[in-house]
Amino acid sequence: SGNNFEIIIIDDGSPDGTQEIAEQLEKIYGSDKILLRPRARKLGLGTAYIHGMKHATGNFIVIMDADLSHHPKFIPEFIRKQKEGNFDIVSGTRYKGNGGVHGWDLKRKLISRGANFITQVLLRPGASDLTGSFRLYRKEVLQKLMEKCVSKGYVFQMEMIVRARQLGYTIGEVPISFVDRVYGESKLGGNEIVSFLKGLLTLFATT
């Protein structure tokens, strides 16, 4: 790609063999390119970001799911977009241009669309996809946002964008195709929806 990079894999004791595969990749590509930084148990997305940042040596950090529902082919577009507008954040969007979702049932699509719509109406964040996690950040911007964000779960990604706007950071968007994971399960139940609504109201009251 012509870009100097490292891949940091944070594995929270997942039972799907992620750690073993990462260890094989480390042997092939070297520990300077593949950095496996496992944790003993599931400690949450926000703490995984902080854990990964401690080991990141670059000026920019791309965050993505390791199950390839986020395709690496979009990363060069993120980098181009960042350079083009000197953005602090470049966010992947499923809801603009030729972006889309593959592998979700109607219920999941409606929940995601509904969550984005309600958030747009209440918070007017100026970004089209608030619940996705495929993003590029300036490292110092990500650090600052992590200090400010208090949400957990489904609301966390949304708060990152809302706080970024509040702090005056610039955000670019790249249309992406999201493909639901082939292995394992994504758990989005009633509890997550209730906590999302609570988090949304908290953000509405505090931003």
Automatic annotation (TrEMBL):
Keywords: Endoplasmic reticulum, Glycosyltransferase, Magnesium, Manganese, Metal-binding, Transferase. It is an enzyme of class 2 (transferase). One of its GO terms (molecular function) is dolichyl-phosphate beta-D-mannosyltransferase activity. Its main location: endoplasmic reticulum. InterPro entries: DPM1-like, Glyco_trans_2-like, Nucleotide-diphossugar_trans. One of its GO terms (cellular component) is endoplasmic reticulum membrane. This is Dolichol-phosphate mannosyltransferase subunit 1. It comes from Podiceps cristatus (Great crested grebe).
